[in-house]
Amino acid sequence: MTEHADRGGDAAGPGTSAPDPGDWPQTETMRLLRHLLDVATRVRPAMARRTGLSTSELIALEHLYLEPLGPNEIGERLGVSSAATTQIVDRLTGHGHVTRDPHPSDRRRRVVTLTDSGRAEVIAEIAPMIEGLVAADAELDEAEREIVARYLRSAIEAFTRVL
Fold first, then answer.
1. 20 to 30 Å CA-CA from 113: which of 1, 16, 64, 128?
2. Hey, what CATH topology would domain 48-161 get?
3. Shortest CA distance to 88 belongs to which of 50, 121, 61?
4. Any long-range contacts for 150-155 (C-beta under 8 Å, 24+ apart)?
5. Rounded alpha-carbon distances, angstroms, from residue 108 to 64, 70, 101, 105
6. What's the rounded mean pLDDT across residues 17-42?
7. Contact 120, 103 (CB under 8 A)
8. What is the 3-state secondary structure (H, E, C) of 100-126?
9. What is the C-alpha to C-alpha distance for residues 128 and 160, in angstroms, rounded to an integer?
10. Tens of pLDDT, residues 48-103
């Protein structure tokens, strides 16, 4: 019995009853979703190993691919301390993947910008995955795409419940 259940409720919370995971429906979509999640959890660490970066450094590059960020913003997005952020940015700078530049409107701040080599590193690592996902999406007609989108929105909502 869980500690929560010992206090008078079940593991899902007071007044609710969650099915035992062994009783969850074993549909093809549930099995495939579980498999996708298992594979997805291994993607970043594998990419980081191949590039000689830490997982945090790789995630920072992913964020910087979208837009330049201040060090504080990087730390917030990664959920790390300012000291850890400084180390991450220092290592990425040492690899030549980012630069620290003056903020365009606030001289007291710095902005971290992805370099061409950093951009190339990200693209080289994710291109095969993106190409495969684009190809899979292209095989769907609009009606199928809407069904998949509805399922994925519901799955995202379910995951968000435990954050």
1. 128
2. Arc Repressor Mutant, subunit A (1.10.10)
3. 61
4. 151/29, 155/33
5. 20, 11, 11, 9
6. 87
7. no
8. EEECCCCCCCEEEEECHHHHHHHHHHH
9. 28
10. 999 999 999 999 999 999 999 999 999 999 999 999 999 999 999 999 999 999 98
Give residue limits of the domains in the chain. Answer: 48-161
Identity of residue 2? T
Amino acid 1: pLDDT: 44
Residues 6+ apart with CB under 8 A from 69: 63, 77, 111, 112
> Residue 19's pLDDT band (boundaries 50, 70, 90)?
confident
Three-state SS for 13?
A: strand
Q: What sign results for the dihedral spanned by CA atoms 45, 50, 52, 57?
A: negative
